[in-house]
Design brief:
binds alpha-D-glucopyranose, 29% helix, Immunoglobulin-like, six-stranded antiparallel sheet
């Protein structure tokens, strides 16, 4: 077998670019609220959770390459192949199923680590674009529980079920990432034609029965996941926004937009409204995220690997790579605990949630650095999590190194984003936000009452030397104002 490092050499730029490639698709910041009261209620609860875990995992992890994209023929950095013979490459890629045996799979350890970092939900790739199902689907053999996959004999072979059960046992919500496009299904990429890009490779108006089979297959798989065998599912996180209903005008608009590249763009109506209503019969209140598809089936927005400049006036979540790539790479460099805590606070101050991606490896292991990172975040959360959960954005959100949020109507949190190694300042405040007169200010994690004064249109809090000498936590110091 070719070594991981050779394959990686070809995919190295891929990882950075892949982290960027969804950006344009996700830029659309319009929002259509749902009208189902149960969904609205659940979305409010979800906005309180603030911090979740995303995991990209599949047979591709064995090669340490970018997930799925190398079998897509688009001429992009993240699609480069180690073998210039596409047909041979795709065959090898699909044969990864036959050696996928993640014997070190330990979802209980992942769930505990996530829980103690303060994560409150998990989103797992039940199926990525390559079509490999990480659950016990009855609708294809290209799945982890197939006799073709060595792990099928392991009692934990249905990894999606194991993951959801393990995380639920730790009190986390569960979310199913599911890719609408399926590059293994002959109803999506019909072997009768070449596959020029990510889209369905035949004309759906010329072959409506084939497309209908694809719609049925997709609905069938999603209903397998939501029908009960996998327990209560809170979020259906649908990727592959190009699979969507489009009018002729919308198609024309895309084709004529600057930078347009894809040849096979067409109306790929997967009948989302019908799917969502069937799904909510099984999972009342289910949050559905039809990513990058403008409309009511995108209950929250998902900016990818970036944090919006300003607070957004509707539910949103940034999904961000913690180390290396969305998918596992052997020598992933993880962000520091300091950077992660700053990221979380920045997102929370803008009213969003952070969905941090950690990728399991070929044997079902996480890098030890991933556990280390979650430990560091957990240390900070142990002291400060009350200033994360259940908060809401409050203008002016951020001023220099100070952020602000509210919880309910009588509590404010003020966060100081310290530089690495910085000492706690003697005075901390804002010039564009006035604290309510008579507010009681304390340091989170200490409870000592602090003196503060009105300063112009803002305020300034004095931090006593004792607290400055040994602050309650590292990275970000939090004050609480009650009134
Ligand atoms: C990008 C990648 C895709 C990944 C997703 C996660 O769009 O192309 O593979 O699943 O990001 O948000």
């Amino acid at each position: 077998m070719e070594t991981i490092s050779l394959r990686r050499a070809l995919c190295i730029s891929a990882i950075f670019i892949s982290s960027q490639c969804g950006i344009l698709a996700q830029e659309d910041e319009r929002y259509v609220p749902d009208t189902d009261p149960l969904v609205l209620q659940k979305l409010g609860q979800w906005q309180d959770l603030k911090f979740g875990l995303l995991m990209h995992w599949g047979p591709y992890s064995q090669w340490g390459i970018v997930e799925s994209w190398s079998i897509c023929a688009e001429d992009e950095g993240w699609c480069r192949r180690a073998n210039p013979d596409y047909t041979a490459y795709k065959k090898d890629y699909e044969n990864l199923q036959k050696s996928f045996n993640p014997v070190q799979f330990d979802p209980a350890r992942w769930a505990k680590a996530a829980r103690s970092a303060g994560m409150r939900y998990v989103v797992f790739t039940t199926k990525h674009h390559d079509g490999f199902s990480m659950f016990d689907t009855k609708l294809t053999d290209y799945r982890i529980t197939s006799p073709l996959t060595p792990f099928n004999t392991d009692p934990r072979a249905n990894v999606t079920k194991e993951i959801f059960n393990a995380f639920r046992a730790e009190g986390l919500w569960t979310g199913a990432y599911f890719s609408k496009p399926d590059w293994h299904s002959e109803y999506y990429w019909w072997p009768n034609f070449a596959t020029p890009d990510r889209n369905v490779n035949y004309d759906v108006t010329a072959y409506p029965e084939r497309w209908e089979n694809f719609v049925k297959f997709t609905h069938g798989q999603i209903m397998e996941l939501l029908g009960g065998d996998y327990g209560k599912i809170d979020i259906l996180w649908l990727d592959g926004g190009w699979v969507q209903k489009m009018t002729r005008e919308e198609i024309l608009k895309q084709i004529t937009a600057p930078g347009y590249k894809f040849t096979r763009i067409q109306n790929q109506d997967i009948r989302m409204d019908e799917l969502v209503s069937k799904a909510r019969e099984k999972q009342p209140g289910l949050i559905v995220v039809d990513r990058a598809v403008h409309g009511k089936n995108q209950n929250y927005l998902t900016p990818e690997n970036r944090v919006p400049e300003k607070a957004l006036p509707f539910p949103w979540e940034s999904c961000i790579i913690a180390g290396g790539s969305w998918s596992w790479v052997p020598d992933a460099k993880y962000m520091s605990g300091h950077a992660a805590v700053h990221l979380l606070v920045d997102i929370v101050a803008k009213g969003g949630n952070l969905l941090l991606n950690i990728a399991p490896g070929p044997l079902g292991q996480w890098h030890e650095e991933a556990y280390g990172l979650l430990d560091e975040i957990g240390e900070w959360m142990k002291v400060n999590s009350e200033a994360i959960y259940g908060t809401r954005a409050l203008a002016p959100y951020k001023e220099n190194k100070v952020c602000i949020t509210r919880k309910g109507d009588n509590v404010l949190y003020i966060y100081y984003l310290a530089d690495e190694g910085e000492a706690m300042p003697a005075e901390l405040g804002m010039s564009s936000f006035a604290l309510p007169p008579g507010a009681k200010v304390t340091v989170v994690g200490r409870g000592t009452k602090l003196n503060w004064t009105k300063k112009g249109d803002g305020f300034s809090v004095s931090i006593p030397a004792g607290i400055r000498k040994s602050p309650p936590s590292e990275h970000v110091w939090v004050l609480k104002a009650t009134f």
